[in-house]
Amino acid sequence: MQNIDDLKGILEEYVQNSNQVFITGHIEPDFDSIASSIAMALLIKKYKKPVYIIFDEDKDKIQIGVNTILDEAKYRISFIDINSYLRLKSNNDLLICLDNNKNYRVCCKDYLNNFNRILIIDHHKKIKILLMLIINIFILHYLVRVK
User: Which domains does the chain possess?
Assistant: First the structure.
């Protein structure tokens, strides 16, 4: 299992060597998928890189609480749909997939080959990644502090 410093180094290298960063959770997002995506986007902003969360879901079909989180975060984070991604994409983009390790559960699954690099951070794997827990704690702390 990698330690947190190794994970931080990998994340920094991937972000710094990319033009922009796109983040996605899984289809039919739940609280941990959205919270980890928002937290990662806030973290990436510290690197002064353009960052977008690809969110291509019908908001009427997701949990009310998830919609509340999205409404709170939309003033701090750029949420885009697939069509917006297709307009923004470049040759050197990073995709960070959170809370999911199956390509068929990613909303941008048809465009995975467009990305120069893909970083997967998922707590569902047998070796749980501590970074996911830290990200979830960070976003909850951030949302509570901002109110």
Answer: 4-146 (3.90.1640.10)
